[in-house]
Amino acid sequence: MEGARWTLNRREFLLAASGSVAEVLFQGTGAFGQEKDKPRPNFLWISTEDISPDLGCYGDTYAVTPHLDALAAQGIRYNRVFSHAGVCAPTRSGIITGMYPTTIGTQHMRCQGVPPHYVKCFPEYLRAAGYYCTNNVKTDYQFASPPAAWDECSAKAHWRNRPKDSPFFAVINFTTTHESQIRDHSPELMRRLDGLAPTERHDPAKAKLPPYYPDTLKVREDWARYYDLITLMDKQVKEVLDQLEADGLAEETIVWFWGDHGRGLPRAKRWVYDSGTRVPLILRIPEKWRKLAMPDNPNALRPGSVNDELVAFVDFAPTMLSLAGVEVPKHMQGQAFLGRHRAKPREYVYGGRDRMDEAYDLIRTVRDKQFRYIRNYMWYVSRGQTITYMDEMPTMQEMRRLHAEGKLQGPQMQYFEPTKPIEELYDTAADPYEVNNLAGDPKHQTVLERMRLAHLEWCRETKDMGLVPEPIFDEMKRPDGKFEKTADPVFVKLAGNKDQGGAVTVACATQGASIVWRLGGDPKEDAGWSLYVRPVPIQAGEVLHAKACRLGFQDSGVASFKAGDSIANKPEPTQAENWDDKTDLPGLRLRLMKIKELDFTGPNATTALLAHLTDAKPSVRYWAVVGLHAWTKYSIDLAMAKPAVTTMLEDPSTVVRIAAAHAMCDWGEEQTALPVLIEALKSPTAKTRMFAMVALDKIGEKARPALPQIQAAAQDADEYVVRVAKTVLSRFHAK
Description:
By secondary structure, this protein is of the alpha/beta class. The chain has 4 domains: 29-344, 3-Layer(aba) Sandwich (Alkaline Phosphatase, subunit A), CATH 3.40.720.10; 363-479; 483-579, Sandwich (Immunoglobulin-like), CATH 2.60.40; 584-733, Leucine-rich Repeat Variant, CATH 1.25.10. Helices cover 32% and strands 15% of the residues. It has 23 helices and 19 strands. An 8-stranded mixed beta sheet has the order 4-3-5-1-6-7-2-8. A 4-stranded antiparallel beta sheet has the order 9-10-11-12, with helices on one face. Strands 16-15-18-19 form a 4-stranded antiparallel beta sheet. Strand 13 and strand 14 form a beta hairpin. Helix 8 runs antiparallel to helix 12, helix 19 packs antiparallel against helix 20 and helix 21 (686-698) runs parallel beside helix 23. It is globular.
């Protein structure tokens, strides 16, 4: 991307975002359309992890959160704010880009995404507009945080480090409320908890448990600890706000407080119910900025206000740009809910669940103000799959223990049902815990059909990639597993004296690249890089360092220039095909959605599924095999499916062969099929090995002949392959 007049029309934005080397100079405006010299607010984000709106200001009488309650009294409490996922990394990839993870390929937990070339981290647009942007300290974007995103990203990052008079965007992330802290008994955390006053501690006996939890002491203790941690975090919020006040910046700064997804307890975190996706959001907007934030009705932002509009996490990025006076890029899928680009209120928010650590699932959801619709694409998989990290939670251990003992009842049994409904529908007003599925209720068929249609339209419009099996998708995003490297920047123009210096123009050939620079200093240092938006003036004796980055790519090397050096020719911009540009993708997505519509026909789908076994795309063949495996309930269907699936053991795609081998093992043909799964464990692709290991886990005792290979897999380089292998080994060794 070359230098610098970032104008606002669509064509020029895409040229800049795609790495065009056409020079664009600022003319009367700042970067991305920001008007020069116009007063701008500062922004402070205070984010915390793994909490639902379990705060006093949201009406929770069990909570002890005086400082957040005070913040809500000074600002606006948003009642209907939703994450698009129930876990941090997919959530944060959507927040930082303003796009759904299911669109940009970052939906699987701890994957390594390669977003399309036009996607940027939104703070880059703020930096280009003159904001000093800092993050302290969590990123977790499903791709490495690029140097173009932040002026500083470290445990020391703070607005106090900014240049004088610069507006700032500062993020403070608290991990105090993270799931792991509920079960943490380290001396340091216990010391902090012991520092709470008796009136700030939460009595387990007074906890109001959801009906899907068993009522035991350990469950109550987890629930009380979760609230104790929120109280600790509440004190941390006060410390940050006190710093802002001490610096005389409270009236100049719009403060956001939010949680990154629902509470870190079972059947909440990782799930798409309200317990996993509904979060608190509090904004404090000083009076001087209320007209800016809501020009048509600034009184709606007065202290103590409550907003009941639907807000999605993908709306955060465009709202920040809107408040900063920066044009919102057209590719962003969120919509601004404040500022001059404020959109009409939403009718729906959307979300999903994909792979969670070592457990594969595929769920999509739509929520309006009253109803939640859930589509379970892997309905044949229990909610109660093993996730090693999650299973460390005492509440989860209690649930599993009591299930094994046959002591769960009512809604407590739902989590361990062997399969899930294809569709779920909940009236969240009448049933806030979402335990009464109305999908089969004739009185709610109109609502069901409306929500189902909204879900299908969202999947189509956002180009949802969820039905492409992860090993196949990984190969699309990063062929042979190799990280592409951003091209080194080059110095293509010097406006001034060759030997005395002048304004240096920098360019990069990589499509979608951003450039950062610094004068002097150690080029190996990660911090201290400025975002390149215009030619950089240098003087004789100074050295200009520059490097380039693109999301999902490795950063370039550092290029250096000083007065007297030769100028290079402008590089030709790369036009390599991105994974999302492939011409066959729209047709593939359509066929995948069509094949999953067969879920509604049940065992009658056999004939149609057989026809899909010859599709040219392995993703379609994979789901055809999976469908036959799931729906062959009757001998006549098995008689048709078994010979066809047998032939798929020799399919060109390893992923299809794994699906076929899994089915054949379940159908009593493990002698033929098990060697296919063993061979797949040798794949050079981590997620292919993962698919094979998951299949070995699910076939149970039939996997025992593969014990040596499973033991070897317990030493795999991929953490999740190791987890599944150890789960299988623990089951074998227990017998």
